[in-house]
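Re: the request from the purification team.
They wanted to know what the chain is likely to look like in 3D before they choose a buffer screen. I agreed to run a prediction and write the result into the notebook, where they can find it.
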Amino acid sequence: METIWVVLIAVAALIIGVALGFFLARKYMMSYLKKNPPINEQMLRTLMMQMGQKPSKKKINQMMRAMNNQADK
């Protein structure tokens, strides 16, 4: 009977540890990506030039705003 309690406590601790680890890692990654976005204006300008478009400041700002709005959702 005592071994059953030990096993149940171990399984419960494992489940709680996995859930807690997942949420902490998720929160860390969200804050990291907010501080260090994966793409910036210079990268977007280079990408547009490679695609044969002439990037204007207005167009780049519009695309950055759209990407930030998408990231916030």
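For the purification team: The two ends are 50 Å apart (CA to CA).
Please add any questions underneath this entry.
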